[in-house]
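Methods — Computational structure assignment.
A single polypeptide chain was analysed. Its primary sequence is given first, followed by the predicted tertiary structure written as structure tokens.
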Amino acid sequence: MFLTKISAYYFTHSLAILSDALESIVNVIAGFIGLYSLYVAAKPRDREHPYGHGKAEFVSAAIEGGLIVAAGIMIIYETVMNFLQESPLQKLDTGLILVGATAVINYIAGTVCIQIGKKNSSLALQASGKHLQIDTYSTIGIIAGLIIILVTRLLWLDKVIALGMSVLVIYNGYRIIRTSLAGIMDEADLQLLNNFIAVLNRNRRANWIDMHNLRVIKYGALLHIDCHLTVPWYLNVHEAHKEIDALADLIKREFGDAIELFVHTDGCLPFSCTICTRTDCSVRQQPMKERLTWSLENIVSNRKHQL
């Protein structure tokens, strides 16, 4: 596709098409970087990497975002350098056919990458897919601009289109960098946390009196989950462990098998009675007042809840 776009530039001398071709260089480089990151991320955990190698995908996505920004800057440079020069356009119809074909192929490839990336929780594949789709949108914009140039013969529009595409490219590169850095810094995924909390509320067991200090971290496809679970104080070790097993089964059923779960069990205290839904508790000291609904605000705090 890169060679096709370069050929289209050769036929037309269009800076807009050149800007599209320069971004395709990034596609080639980023594809190899992404492929290597997937190879590294798929390695099993070892002594040096007890949480696995999944964060290699975040690094790959950050590099890809940086390359996209660099491509945008290159497009601006080429456009500014040629802005005052008259560069006659030619064979725009041939160029339109060539870049139009690359747009269709890019979009299909990007859609496939995103679907497989979501299925396998792969940030590298999703970043590559979004990049390919962004490339498609910019190509469509260029095609529309070239059609306008064909009709109006306003050749200066070619340079304006190239500048507009460079801004779009840089912005989307920034978004990919922002997402990858969030993963590297273990930034909370609010959408994932809210989905997780909703599943817990829907499937809550009577012995799960309370939960707090919840943390969910993504390492590539692996979800690492920490939490404190309050259970009746009189459960023995085996009974408490059964509650943890039930929690693990629920999470794996809803979010897949790539789960690492660490649960600290707390025994309930007298103030827990007001939020405990057990109806057969023989040692209850206070009546239940309200069923506490877990939310993002109360479940991530590092304290036991009480009314």
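Note: DSSP finds nine helices and three strands in the chain.
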